[in-house]
Amino acid sequence: MSEPSIFFSEVNERQGVFHRRTFLLGGFTGLGLLALGGRLAQLQLVEAQRYQKLSAGNQFNYRLAPPPRGMILDRNGVSLASNRPNFRLMITKDKGLDAEAVMDDLAKLVPIDGTRRARVLKDLARAPRKAPVVVMEDLSWEEFSRINIREPELPNVTADMGEVRVYPFGGAFAHVIGYVAKASDRDLKAAEGDPGQDQALLHNPGFRIGKQGVEKAFDRDLRGKAGATKAEVDAQGRVVRLDPAGDIAATAGKEIRLTLDADIQNRALEVMGEESGAIVMVDCQTGDLLCMASAPSFDANRLVKGLSGAEYRALAEYERKPLLDKTMTGVYPPGSTFKPTVALAALSAGVDPTERVVCTGGWYFGGRTWHCHKKGGHGVQNMHDAIKNSCDVYFYQMALRIGPDPIHSTATALGFGQAFDLGIPGQRKGLVGSRDWKKKAFKRDPVWHPGDSVPYGIGQGYINVNALQLAVMCARLANGKRALNPRLVKAIGDVDQPHGDAVADLPFPQEHIEIVRAGMAAVANDPTGGAYKQSQLGLGDVLMAGKTGTAQVRQYSQTGSRSNQGVPWRLKDHNLFIAFAPYDNPRYAMSVLVEHGGMFGSSAAAPRAREVMRVALLKDPEIRARIEKPMPLPSLEPGDTEASEAPTPTDGVPAVG
């Protein structure tokens, strides 16, 4: 029997296959272990902090905290816009929220009317998930406590304390400071492409943005930088407890200091009463604006909370336009307050100030009679008398003689027809007519006719100005040298803003300015002046210079009466007055405009200017010291009775000390 044969080639082949498979499987196993070890190392060593943060994020949540808005102060540090605590009730939109049921529950705890309910439900429908929607603001302490006690029973309801903007003086500064309100859809859309905007902050229910005036113009400076509050939450995202140690503090907005004076501004609004108009005061030495009051005004605090449609319509449709800033946006014919400008233009054109014009109450030119405001006329008038008496006939003839261009040039140099860099929007330049202007404005009749110059000389026709420009014109005349620019913002944070006196000199000889100023002094201090009785300050030797103005808003008939009795308010004349004081060393200049006042500027505007000017003068330490300085005792001539000796009674009655 033969032995079985062993084929070593087969054995070797099987061993080789086994070894290859073992090596291959071992390699895969090794690679897997290596990858698993590398991933574990990456998770535990490299990305440990990241996952710790994610883990903490599941446990803790940061809620955006709007920053305190920067304060707005007057020149003396008086608060014009600040912040106060505000108890708010909010609903956070979430999946499965039954908004109708929540509102029903809340209505049992706090007063929620149908209008508010509809508005909240609409806001919840539009809000993104997890976004809080404000139900009520300015909760009372009782309402706030009631909600907090029952908060565990109310899903997605929170009551917290935020801040709300407050304006201590209500409407006194409403036009110049403006107000804040919740960002509208238009605001949010405009901010979408702006990398400098904090989108999360804009959507926060407690955040407000500036809507007008200083609040709007310096909104970025006033906003500050948002912070966050740290809170521990459960798996559903509900707050378990707060962690104040982890809060991120917000940075308050910058403080803005204005040049305005709260006392002067409040007095200005007070003296305007129910009239419509504006009062502007400028420091003649620096150009600082001390007063920019527009009347009637509105309470800015009401707009912060939000007006109903009916309330807003009532403001918008009222004929005296409380929403219009009449200091900068409203433009009016200046009337006779423009005559000092025309007089200065005539002097620059070579007119002799001693030249006389006879005023008989009217002047026939161009096929019609141009009337003077005084029936029977003023008689013989030189420039000084014409300014003092506000003689229309004199200025009709001067304007016709020199033409519109010298008047335009002088008016522009005094501040008319331009917008000043106050930092806030809303200014209208008005209109100062010239030959070039008419060529561009009237294509069918581009020629400046002689008849256009006649009313131009008394501040009517192709001339419209605002109250700010009138005050600047008066301040430049009072200063006599510098073409002062008005300044409203004194400082932003710790940075002072440019002064208004860093400007070029006026292009007029000093003697010409003195002639015009002397005429204005006679208006207020000569017993025959147009505003003598209404311009007496009663402050010793501190005197005021001024100029009255009455601007027509309708065409008078040639023979009809110019009385405003029985005329609708919107058709009555405007009343104006410009003034500066003290006359011998001017410090303050101002303009007063009473819209459709129906009386002469001396009757309606001048008394208001006097009262506001008194406040400014009495607040000035140097001027007050001058007013309170005792009068010198009269000197005694030789032979007079000694001051220490009492006269001897001659009638048997003892002298009374």
UniProtKB/TrEMBL annotation:
Pfam family, any one: PBP_dimer
Location(s) in or outside the cell: Cell membrane; Membrane
Domain of life: Bacteria
Domain named Penicillin-binding protein dimerisation: residues: 66-241
EC number: 3.4.16.4
InterPro entries: Beta-lactam/transpept, Beta-lactam/transpept-like, PBP_dimer, PBP_dimer_sf, PCN-bd_Tpept, Penicillin-binding_protein_2
Spans annotated as Disordered: 627-657
Domain Penicillin-binding protein transpeptidase: 277-613
Cross-referenced Gene3D superfamilies: DD-peptidase/beta-lactamase superfamily, Penicillin-binding protein 2a (Domain 2)
Membrane topology category: Single-pass membrane protein
Keywords attached to this entry: Carboxypeptidase, Cell inner membrane, Cell membrane, Cell shape, Cell wall biogenesis/degradation, Hydrolase, Membrane, Peptidoglycan synthesis, Protease, Transmembrane, Transmembrane helix
Molecular function terms from GO: serine-type D-Ala-D-Ala carboxypeptidase activity
NCBIfam families: pbp2_mrdA
Name this polypeptide is given: Penicillin-binding protein 2
Species for this entry: Caulobacter segnis
